[in-house]
Specification:
about 400 residues, alpha/beta, Rossmann fold, Aspartate Aminotransferase, domain 1, 2 domains, seven-stranded mixed β-sheet, three-stranded antiparallel β-sheet, globular
């Protein structure tokens, strides 16, 4: 496992003290799950649903007095978080309950799946990027709870990439979908619990909603300040560095470049057989982007895009988490790819995750990326005002 100098790992805005954050399940477990006494639970979770001392949320609820665990539900990547494909129903070996997949034949709990349930509980670690799909699963379940007169409880967790910075175009209502579950920017700086409050409040989802908030987390804290162990939220999200890069570099993977899937460092590298890594690295270094530098490399993915084919490209190295701007980086990477390799770079699906036609067209017109970033600021200002009412942490 690679290590980085400590100076590169500590955000300059954080204190030197590391808190032991209690997540929602830790808070719930501390009083014997009293808030759920007498309830029949449908639990939406995966391998990330654990207490700070490593107990699975499903086991905590199954062992709790006067709590009946009736149904289990899993999101994209499955119950164990290891699949990168459509997911079938499974069964939890320890508890014996069927796990209904919400990334298979349906993405929303059906009436049959909810039989006997009076409370849905959500406990999944998000990473703070709009197109990461766990909060879309949460929204679908929140809507199902409203439709079937169920209580909905979110066991909240920290936003790993912090709760202060916001960036990217704000999604328009008509473009909401599974990779854009609500009208938020690409980097929204909110927790799952805060997003549930916003979704229910702004879209009048009539549901009894309760958030079991974290204790000890502050908005300025990235994951390294929480005292919590990192658990890969999905197969290709293996570190805080990758989570920080994802809102920018993840945008590009709908095109014909590899973003490192099939390597040991997904989202830390980008390349293709037709990319000259030295040329791309030099171009990006010349843009003066803060908190990041670029190393030309060659790599061969063993799966996904360009599997088995050697690619030229760059390694993204974050040098200062305080000043690094992932979405701005993503726009500059797209700009560089279009200016340097327009004949080879296929952009038909570029807007699939960006979900902002004007920004995509500006990139293809070789508009300066910082001008595109500046064009979002008014909407971001309005978003920051909108979100104030729903925030739970200082």
């Amino acid at each position: 496992m690679r290590t980085l100098p400590l100076a590169l790992l500590l955000p300059a805005f954080a204190s030197s003290a590391i808190a032991q954050v209690k997540t929602g399940i830790d808070v719930l477990a501390a009083d014997g799950c009293a808030r759920l006494h007498g309830r029949k639970i449908g639990l939406i979770t995966n391998h990330t649903g654990r207490t700070a001392d490593g107990r699975r949320t499903v086991d905590v609820l199954a062992a709790a007095a006067d709590v009946e665990l009736v149904a289990l539900f899993s999101p994209e990547h499955g119950w164990d978080g290891v699949l990168d494909e459509k997911v079938a129903d499974s069964r939890d070996a320890a508890i014996g309950l069927l796990v209904h997949s919400l990334y298979g034949e349906t993405r929303k709990p059906t009436e049959a799946m909810l039989a006997g349930v009076d409370t849905l509980v959500f406990d999944i670690q998000d990473i703070g990027c709009r197109f990461y799909t766990y909060v879309a699963t949460m929204r679908n379940c929140l809507e199902a709870a409203g439709e079937h007169d169920l209580r909905f409880v979110v066991l909240d967790r920290p936003n790993p990439i912090g709760g202060l910075a916001t960036a990217g175009p704000v999604l328009e209502k008509e473009r909401q979908n599974f990779v854009g579950a609500h009208r938020v920017p690409l980097r929204h700086g909110m927790t799952a619990g805060e997003l549930a409050r916003m979704m229910a409040g702004e879209d009048a989802i009539r549901v009894e909603l309760e958030i079991v908030a974290c204790e000890g987390w502050q908005r300025a804290d990235l994951w390294d300040r929480t005292g919590l162990c990192w658990i890969d939220p999905s197969p290709n999200m293996r570190s805080l560095t990758e989570a920080l890069l994802y809102p920018g570099i993840g945008l590009v993977e709908t095109t014909n470049v590899s973003v490192g899937r099939g390597t040991d460092t997904p989202f830390e590298v980008l390349g293709a057989p037709w990319i000259d890594g030295r040329q791309l690295a030099a171009d990006l270094r010349g843009r003066g982007l803060p908190g990041v530098t670029f190393v030309p490399i060659r790599f061969t993915p063993d799966s996904s895009k360009h599997a088995g084919v050697e690619c030229g490209g760059v390694n993204f190295v974050i040098t200062d988490w305080r000043t690094f701007e992932p979405v701005r980086l993503g726009m500059h990477v797209m700009s560089a790819l279009h200016r340097l390799f327009a004949a080879d770079w296929q952009t038909k699906s570029l807007d699939r995750l960006l979900l902002h036609e004007a920004s995509m067209q500006a990139i293809l017109a070789d508009t300066e990326p910082d001008a595109i970033v500046a064009s979002w600021e008014k909407e971001l200002d309005l978003f920051r005002i909108r979100r104030r009412h729903f925030l739970l942490y200082d």
